Amino acid sequence: MRVLISNLPAALLLLSIVATQAIAADIKNGSRLYNQYCISCHGQQGKGDGDRAKNEQLDPRPRVHANGDYMNMIPDMRFFRVIKFGGRAIHFSHIMPQWQHILSDEDIIDVIAHIRSLADPPFEPGMVRGCMIPVPENERTGPIKQ
Ligand code: HEC
Questions:
Q1: Does ligand 1 have an atom closer than 6 angstroms to the CB of 63?
Q2: 40 lines ligand 1 (CB under 6 A)
Q3: Is 52 in the pocket of ligand 1 (CB under 6 A)?
Q4: Ligand 1 atom 17, closest CA
Q5: Which CATH number fits the domain that encloses residue 33?
Q6: Comparing C-alpha atoms, which of 74, 44, 77 is closest to residue 62?
Q7: How many angstroms separate the alpha carbon of residue 83 from the centre of ligand 1?
Q8: Fewest C-beta in 10 Å: which of 11, 49, 62, 68?
Q9: Number of domains in the chain
Q10: Do residues 38 and 124 lie in contact, with contact meaning Cβ atoms separated by under 8 Å?
């Protein structure tokens, strides 16, 4: 319940941004932030093969953001939530850190736009409905795709 309540303002903010398109995503900023904070685990191309993923044998492994078959089915809101509040906020691993004290909400939206750009097959607008999709266990711990 605590998790739900703490996520509510973020949910409303994202909805209002998307609904009014008050803020356009700045993918360049997203890419810069991703390279600064995320590639140590997720890898520069989003293949889940960053140095920490390799050296620390993280389990579960960092999500393969390049895997469009999986990523293209996940609504923006879930990415927003997991990036802002960390893995635990959506019952994922605590290894995925929270970024709410480092990234602004606008930064997170920019990072999501960058993540979407890494997908193969490519992400197309309209692929995702606003619903929450459960994550199959095998995706969460699956092998790193090269
Ligand atoms: C310390 C390593 C680490 C860092 C740094 C890290 N992540 Fe993660 N991330 C993970 C792990 C591990 C998972 C998988 C968690 C699980 O499956 O339970 C994950 C999962 C995710 C997911 C998956 C969401 C889903 O719905 O499947 C997203 C999105 C994500 N990370 C974004 C980011 C972004 C953006 C950054 C940088 C701001 C970042 N991560 C930094 C380790 C990391």
A1: yes
A2: yes
A3: yes
A4: 140
A5: 1.10.760.10
A6: 44
A7: 7
A8: 11
A9: 1
A10: no
- Closest residue to atom 12 of ligand 1, CA basis: 62
CA distance 55 to 87: 20
Terminus-to-terminus CA distance in the chain, angstroms?
Answer: 38
Neighbours of 32 (CB within 10 A): 15
Q: Extract the tokens encoding 62.
A: 């960092």
pLDDT, tens digit, for every residue of 62-91? 999 999 999 988 988 899 999 999 999 999
pTM equals: 0.82
Q: Which two tokens stand for residue 120?
A: 């193969």
Residue 6 has pLDDT above 70, yes or no: no
Q: Domain for residue 32, yes or no?
A: yes
| Residue 110 CB-density burial (10 A; 0-12 exposed, 13-18 middle, 19+ buried) | buried
Within-domain flag for 134: no
Tokens of 37: 């904070």
Specify the 3-state DSSP secondary structure of 118. coil
Full residue range of the structural domain in which residue 59 is found: 25-126
Specify whether the CB–CB gap between 127 and 121 falls below 8 A: no
120 bridge partner residues: 67
Question: In this structure, what token pair is assigned to residue 23?
Answer: 């803020």
In a domain, 81, yes or no: yes
